[in-house]
Design goal:
D-Maltodextrin-Binding Protein, domain 2; 8 helices; single chain; five-stranded mixed sheet; alpha+beta; seven-stranded mixed sheet; globular
Amino acid sequence: MTFDHDDLTYLATLLRDAARAEVMPRFRNLGPGGVRTKADALDPVTEADTAAEAAITAGLLRRFPAAVVVGEEATAADPPLLARLADADLAFVVDPVDGTANFADGLPLFAVMAAALVRGEAVAAAIHDPVGDDWALALRGEGAWRETPDGRREALRVAAPAPVEAMIGSVSWRFLPPAQRASVCANLPRVAASWGFRCAGHEYRMAAAGHLHFLLFNRLYPWDHAPGCLLHREAGGYAAAFDGTPYRPTRFDGGLIVAPDKASWQALRDTLLAE
């Protein structure tokens, strides 16, 4: 199964169309009952999430009728969907509103994103910024770039390696096991600075563009990481689980560190995970 530039353009346009039709009209305009919670109060879902995912799923199946589509909201309703990713000839993971908490709070930092997977490996990625109205795109083996609606492209490249004490990054420590969370948080002063943006899509875009040296995550749902990891890798970066094994969209635990290169990854792991 191949996935080419025309397919990626279709995917990117589909995300933008869904954002225009279902997401942006609801931004700072959610009606009563427009926000509810899933696992807990820190895990919201809005009517924009469900409507955008339905539109994206329908659009994907029109062009790729045999594909498996694994959306964040569909998986919340039907968890066994995740198991279909590994063996599907073509599958898509879809995050209809990444950064839902920001969206629900009226903060203009959220994304609409998807990745195409062939037999469990990411081959294409699209992260759309509905507010800035542009994309970060990648095809396996063909690089990563930022693209505007008028067709202008700018190649993406990760930051140059730097000593740990000079690195800046984004750390999502909320889902770490308690003991590991304590260690990571205690070690954060050993890097130059860290922030949490509550939006993996923008964090990956920033890292792929060289604005952040590193990212650290623990929960690894594929719609959060498959698009961004491919984007970052095609921009020259390196990512691996805490145990050093390469990232795969079919693995949902084990943590993840994203860095400019393997040496930087090792230095960050030794520093941030030190007990």
